[in-house]
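Hello forum,

I keep getting stuck at the same step: I have a sequence, I want structure tokens, and every attempt I make locally crashes halfway through. Rather than fight my setup again tonight, could one of you with a working pipeline run this one for me? It's a single chain of 287 residues.
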Amino acid sequence: MIGVAGLPVVDHHCHLSPAGEGARAAARFRDAGGTHLFLATQNYEGTVPTDLEAYRRQFETTERLARQVREIAGVVAYVVVAPYPIDLLGAATHLGTEAALELHLRALDLAGRWVRERRAVALGEVGWPHFEVDPALAAAARTAFGHALEVAHDVGCPAVVHSPDLDAAGWEELAGAARKAGLPPHRLVKHYARTRRPAGIAPDVVPSYLARRELVDAVCDEAGPWFLETDFLDDPRRPGAVLDLATVPRRAVAAARASAGVGDRLAIPFVRSVQEVYGLTPELGGR
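Reply #2:
Ran it on my machine without issues. Output:
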């Protein structure tokens, strides 16, 4: 295994699938120097869940994949579960908006129970569609997001946010939504951040930066907390999308080789941010 200044190497957000590479992708991640990943649930059945039992099966599949990642690849996988925000739109076509929202809220409550039972470490992805939708569905999505933050507050965990790209006002809106729900803003993570958060804007809300080379180089001087992620989809129809799972360790190794100081800075996304946001301490050797 290639090391990075004796640090664990953490991909903050990825997906795996029984229909894709699964634990084999985690083995590639390990061989590139990766040690820990946050495994976010996704729809594995090809149809939008229309009852709570479908979500239960989905979460159990994510849990099973995480176990395989540890047993087969020797990589620590932290489980993150919630109904995907876009599910609400698909379910509404089958159930109607009101019933679809009710299902979504119940699925968020189920995800909260998983956190209470220590079967998951966070709610995610929660949020709202990254494209324009019918006003009634947009309102339902916002209601669901507010409930997600309340559940995260109640069970004492972070919430990982799916949303459109944010401008300065959007970052501040996230911070305000967290405070309204009683959730400390540093427990709110904006996943799939494709540009650097504006300086001085919503400093407590945590960006999880897509690990593109130029963005990694740009954010390494940030004080933190912040994360790096691939949002790897493990979709055989889109190999390597969004970024390949080996990207974070490869970027980390390249950055550390380019500058010894950068290697030390990587303790921010790989150790200190995980401690501050999740209350977990990734360690070399499997914890």
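The mean pLDDT is 94. If your local run keeps crashing, start a new thread with the error log.
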